[in-house]
Write a structure and sequence with these properties.
The protein is an alpha/beta fold and about 250 residues long. About 25% of the residues lie in helices and about 20% in strands. The chain has a single domain, classed as Purple Acid Phosphatase, chain A, domain 2, CATH 3.60.21.10. The protein contains six helices and 13 strands. A hairpin with a 3-residue loop joins strand 11 and strand 12. Helix 2 packs across helix 5 and helix 3 crosses helix 5. It is globular and about 50 Å long. The mean pLDDT is about 95.
Length: about 250
């Protein structure tokens, strides 16, 4: 199994296109296809904040439908799904950009996008266990004792990380550094928390390098465990990136 696992895209479609081309994918068919049969995988948070969330939805939907990619939902995906169900959600923290894009469409196109995303979300597992349990892809990561479980605590963990229920002064949730304590055998690839460079810790890889905050869009190649990135076209928002006391960074 050969994968190119892409971090949180957040509507950065241009960077997504450039990154897949850099990885050797051709867009001649209108979607990224690798001549050697490699597949893409996505750690969630396809939408919100960036300029072209709907184009990302369409491409990922098509790839998953054609069995050319793997997708797991992120917390932003979960919120957009609830919006499309007609539930009461706060249209903020990036969702407003996706909703604004969607509202510009005619009714028929709105229904098409809504149906497409609902199908993508509803058919996605909470996390993927792949390659004979050698690798797990989960949006915000996963504790080793949760692998193979699918209850509500697991859902909260994979969507939001190891949250304590407390908040920082800026309103962001307090999260424990679960990767520091990870002792599982499978490699875990995740995103959710923007970091400057891929954070490698105890066989876990955080590949959200903050594309929508002016960082990079990054892919981790498996099984090679090499990193490819493209620079973001978005303005840099320095305070959105998390730093850790001790870490090993892979930087390309």
């Amino acid at each position: 199994m050969k994968l190119d696992i892409i971090g949180d895209i957040h509507g950065c479609y241009e960077e997504f296109t450039l990154l897949t081309e850099k990885l050797g994918y051709s867009w001649d068919q209108g979607y990224p296809l690798h001549p050697a049969g490699r597949k893409l995988a996505f750690v969630g948070d396809l939408t919100d904040r960036g300029p072209a969330s709907l184009a990302v939805i369409e491409t990922v939907y098509l790839l998953v439908k054609k069995e050319l990619a793997y997708y797991v939902p992120g917390n932003h995906c979960d919120k957009l799904y609830r919006f499309f169900l007609g539930r009461k959600v706060k249209i903020a923290h990036g969702l407003e950009t996706t909703v604004a894009e969607w509202e510009q469409l005619n009714k028929k196109e709105q229904q098409r996008i809504r149906r497409m995303f609902k199908e993508l979300y509803e058919n996605a597992p909470l996390y993927h266990i792949l390659d004979n349990q050698k690798i797990v892809i989960a949006h915000a990561g996963i504790r080793e004792d949760y692998i193979g479980q699918y209850h509500n605590k697991v859902k909260t963990f994979v969507l939001y990380g190891d949250i304590t229920g407390e908040v920082h002064g800026n309103g962001s949730p307090v999260r424990r550094d679960w990767a520091k304590k990870y002792k599982g055998k499978p490699i875990v690839v995740y995103g959710h928390t923007p970091v400057r460079n891929v954070r490698e810790m105890n066989r876990t890889y955080n590949i959200d390098t903050g594309a929508v905050f002016g960082g990079k869009l990054t892919a981790l190649q498996y099984p090679e465990l090499t990193v490819e990135s493209v620079c973001s076209s978005m303005p840099l928002i320095d305070e959105k990136f998390r730093t850790f006391d001790t870490e090993t960074a892979k930087n390309h």
